[in-house]
Design goal:
alpha+beta, 578 residues, 30 strands, eight-stranded antiparallel beta sheet, eight-stranded parallel beta barrel, 20% helix
């Protein structure tokens, strides 16, 4: 018998309106051999909660909604079957349903949905009304259903917030790092109010051209590092000898001696070093105007050899976990070969795998003021290898339309930009704000990970293998370029005791524009106390000094998952250990 009443009739209005997703989150889809269960969280006090179920996953059949064709509808406590055409439903019967405290829940016999085969799957869209709020599509892949508690999948809502995540985003350049000490309150303000987590430290060594770096200045570098660490930020570092276009720098022997002095400090403070720009040669450390290494683009074979010796020495002065950046693609291609770094070579510890790029005249001209010599060769080279290397820089001059939003977004994605200068150049930066693309750049510089779904049991025994499957999307321009841990965290509901279980996935391989599935069996400790555990995901800094600091953990771009005090991301799941 066809069933039509006011509530169902009103719902058809949403088909011509834009879907909103803010009110629906925490989707959980599970099944056993005979039943499916659906659950989601909502805000407000809607009169109707609904689940649209596309059992054949064919958008051409059923009611068209959010890229699905709904064959069945759950509205409050009843199940309906689509009769074809538009808004036409027949009641199948009552189902188990609750809708209290912001959580909607249904338990439905699989036979009533025609979903008895295993494996099998279905697409679902959830909705509340009034006001009408409609979720994105979720896909339920059924488990075998033979073991209680298996195959429970939770789906997550992505956030559009700007996040203060480490080693990415705009940086601040308050002053030259060698002249005045950083202020911890100012640096904390960058993070807390501007969502900025990096500062530029350009440390000039001009007064030491004829001798060793003084102990006072070495101590200053240590103080700067300590202040950055206390504030929860990291540094982009460059050493240089001159700001003058006369290029009054120093010869290789002096550079080498100074790096010997700096090496212990670079090692000691590697935890708060995001990346080191090669610097050291020429005006501003940018390798063009120089008295000792080939001036104004006239570079001899010996000059190239000396330049490479500087880079090799800098690499040796840093821990193997940290990268060095060169100012132009030509520099790396000349000194280390013309082939772009491959996936197989990435993160191997070789010089080529540790040398990234920075462009300090981004979009300023057709060649970015000499950054490029031959874009037909250097563009594909740079696009290929910056998938695995650090890339950043700054703008230096307005150059519309090339410096406008369209080109900026295209090239940031093409070359995998992780950072840009927030303080220069203001005309270009303001043009992005005025044209409306600055918020997107704020969000997407570097990596931006969001949870799509998590599948794991609700019950597991001590000493057993817990099967976990996580889907994470990277909507940023780049992937992380420094090492990063991944852990499944179990926190006891009664005692608060935390157990961190490492996962083997490498976030540096979570490529932009892709969704990565992390599937792993994790062995629970045999000594794990029984009880109920909150399940969380942690992406901590791997260094011992920062490993438990929330400021240095990665926040996922989801609503309702981040714990600012712990640095954990809640999977909104509970695991029972009998």
């Amino acid at each position: 018998m066809r069933h039509v009443f006011g509530a169902l009739t009103s719902a058809c209005l949403l088909l011509s309106s834009a879907a909103a997703e803010a009110a629906i989150s925490g989707v959980v889809l599970s099944n056993d051999a005979t039943h499916v269960t659906y659950q989601f969280q909502f805000t407000g006090a809607p009169e109707f909660v609904r689940a649209y179920i596309d059992t054949d996953r064919n958008p051409a059949t059923g009611l068209a909604l959010q890229g699905t064709g709904a064959d069945y509808l759950l509205e409050n406590g009843f199940l309906y079957k689509h009769l074809g055409g538009g808004w036409s439903w027949q009641q199948v019967g009552a189902v188990t349903h609750t809708s209290t405290n912001g959580t909607a829940y249904w338990k439905v016999a699989r036979a009533d949905l025609g979903e008895t085969a295993t494996p099998n799957d279905a697409d679902l869209v959830f909705q509340t009304e009034p006001p009408q709020e409609t979720s994105a599509k979720s896909t339920h892949v059924y488990s075998g259903g033979t073991t209680p508690g298996t195959g429970t999948t939770t789906w997550y809502t992505a956030s559009t917030a700007t996040l203060a995540n480490p080693e990415r985003g705009f940086y601040r350049y308050p002053q030259d790092c060698d002249k005045a000490d950083f202020n911890v309150t100012t640096l904390k303000g960058y993070r807390e109010t501007q969502k900025i987590t990096q500062v530029m430290c350009i440390f000039y060594l001009a007064e030491f051209k004829n001798g060793p770096i003084s102990q006072a200045q070495l101590d200053r570098f240590q103080r700067q590092s300590d202040t950055v660490r206390a504030a929860g930020l990291k540094m982009i570092i460059r050493f240089a000898y001159t700001l003058n276009t006369s290029g009054d720098d120093v010869p290789l022997s002096r550079v080498s001696a100074h790096l010997d002095q700096l090496a212990p400090l670079l090692s000691k403070n590697a935890d708060v070093i995001a990346v080191v720009q090669a610097g050291l040669i020429g005006a501003w450390g940018e390798w063009y105007y120089t008295q000792n290494f080939g001036n104004a683009g006239v570079v001899s074979t010996q000059d190239w050899s000396n330049r490479k010796a500087v880079v090799d020495k800098l690499l040796a002065s840093l821990p193997a976990s940290r990268m060095v950046q060169l100012r132009t693609p030509k520099f790396k291609r000349t000194m280390y070969g013309t082939s772009a770094l491959t996936s197989a070579q990435a993160f191997s510890g070789t010089a080529a795998a540790r040398i990234g790029h920075h462009n300090d005249c981004f979009l300023a001209s057709a060649t970015d003021f000499g950054t490029y010599e031959n874009t037909s060769v250097e563009y594909p080279y740079l696009a290929a290898e910056t998938q695995y290397l650090s890339m950043g820089g700054e703008t230096c001059a307005p150059n519309p339309p090339r410096s406008d939003c369209a080109s900026a977004l295209t090239e940031m994605a093409q070359f995998h930009y992780s950072y840009l200068n927030n303080d220069y150049e203001s005309t270009v930066l303001n043009s992005w704000s005025n044209a409306g693309c600055r918020p997107e750049i704020d969000r997407r510089l570097g990596y931006r990970f969001s949870l799509v779904s998590a599948t794991l049991p609700t019950t597991a025994s001590r000493g057993s293998v817990l099967s976990v499957s996580l889907a994470l999307k990277n909507e940023g321009f780049a992937a992380p370029y420094n090492p990063r841990g991944v852990e499944l965290v179990l926190r006891h509901a009664s005692t608060g005791a935390v157990h961190r279980l490492p996962l083997s996935s490498d976030p540096r391989r979570w490529a932009p524009g892709t969704t990565t599935t992390v599937s792993q069996g994790v062995t629970l400790p045999s000594s794990l106390p029984s009880g109920s555990y909150a399940v969380l995901l942690n992406l901590p800094d791997p260094t011992a000094s920062l490993n438990t600091r929330a400021e240095y953990a990665i926040q996922l771009a989801n609503t309702g998952t981040w714990e600012a005090t712990t640095g954990f991301n809640s999977l909104q799941r509970t695991l029972s250990v009998p």
